[in-house]
Every structure is written in structure tokens, then in C-alpha cells.
Amino acid sequence: MLHGYGASLLEGLAVTLGVALASLAVACVLGLAGAAAKLSRRPLLAGAAGVYTTLIRGVPDLVLMLLVFYGGQALVNHLAQRFGSDGYIDIDPFVAGVLTIGFIFGAYLTETFRGAFLAVGVGQREAGLAFGMSRWQVLRRITAPQMLRHALPSLSNNWLVLVKSTAIVSLIGLNDMMQKTQQAAGATREPFVFYAAAALLYLLITSVSELGFGWLDRRSARHL
User: Fold this and answer.
1) pTM above threshold 0.70
2) In angstroms, rounded to a whole number, what is the distance separating the alpha carbons of residues 97 and 113?
3) CA angle, 67 as apex, 110 and 101 as ends, to 5°?
4) Which domain holds residue 162?
5) What one-character-per-residue DSSP string does 154-223 give?
6) Residues of the chain whose pLDDT is less than 70?
7) What CATH number does the domain containing 141 carry?
8) What is the pLDDT of residue 35?
9) How large is the greatest C-alpha to C-alpha distance in the chain, in angstroms?
10) pLDDT confidence of residue 224
11) By the 8 A CB rule, do 55 and 34 touch?
12) Of 202, 152, 209, the residue nearest 16 (C-alpha)
């Protein structure tokens, strides 16, 4: 049915999953940093985080992807020439895709983690400090577990959207699932078959992800 292109689609699926997982890791780091900045008492940090979330959430993903890949490549080579380099530096499409998607969803996760942190009662943190715990112990034993429980629904939703957003990395030359699908569709002239197969693979990822997040949600609420 897939004319021998099944293995190629699975190779692309592995690349897509790699991009998605690496992007989620980058997004979580940026989201936690952005949430900490927004919750800080320093106006400069809070203002910078506010500009980041407002700007990134207002620009289309495709525009940012092309800006990072082509604009970033031009900037890197311009700086390299200024420092005396004669060679041309190519930005790896995988790295560009991961950094761009992670940067985009870091803005969304900033609000997710900020809201989750605010959902944990201040009295619980104060009680932990009064009990003699350090701030790190309060964060690790009281705040973080409850914050994760509050963040899971939004984190799950952002992950599902992030997975689908990985399709745009095919536009910068990465051999992900969509790139492999386009190649197979062009070679066989059966676009419907291969795009339907790609849709089913994306649906498989999101379905398994929903089961995984459902298990995490039940586990995080097991003591309630």
C-alpha cells in the first residue's frame, strides 16, 4: 500500500519525535525561567519576561522559523566574517527547528508555570519555612509537586500543539516525517495515501501522549 516507503516514514517519525522532545525540554527550561522572572520583584526581569511572552505569542510559528533559520544564518556568517573567518557556516536544520519551537513554546509554558505556581497556597510555603525547611526544601517538597499537578493539563495541551507544530521544520530541509511524506507522495503521485498515513502517525503520537499525561495526572493526584 505504501510502495515500500513505510520504513522511510518511520525514519521521519523518529526525527519528528526527536525534534518534539528536544523542543519540549528547551521550552520547559525557558518556561520555568520566564515564570520565575514574571514572579520576581525586579521590574526589569518581569518586564523582559512580559515582552517575551507577548511578542512570541503574537508572531506566527512559520515566520519565526524562517527568521531563525535564514536570518540567524546570515547573522552568524556576518559576525564570523567580522572576526576574520572566510568559510560559510551552515545552521543545522535540526538545531534551528528545536531552538525555534522551544523558544516559541517557552512563552506559552511561562504562563503555564506562572499560573501553576500561583495556584499553590502561600500559606503552605510559609508553613514549610516556619517548620524549619530551607527555601530549596520548600520548593522541592511542597511547591514543585503541587505546581506540577496544576500545570499538567496545560502542559499536556501545549505538548499536543507542539507535536503538530514540528511539521513546519520540513520547510527548512530537515528530513522529518513531513519531508519523507512529501518525497513519497511526489515519487508515487499518490499524495492522499501518504498524507493520510502521516496524519494517522500524528494521531498515534497524540493518542499515546494523552494516555501518558492521563497516567501522570492520576499519579500526581493519588494522595488527594
Assistant:
1) yes
2) 23
3) 35
4) 6-220
5) HHHHHHHHHHHHGGGGGGGT--SHHHHHHHHHHHHT-HHHHHHHHHHHHHHHHHHHHHHHHHHHHHHTTT
6) 1, 223-224
7) 1.10.3720.10
8) 93
9) 70
10) 61
11) no
12) 202
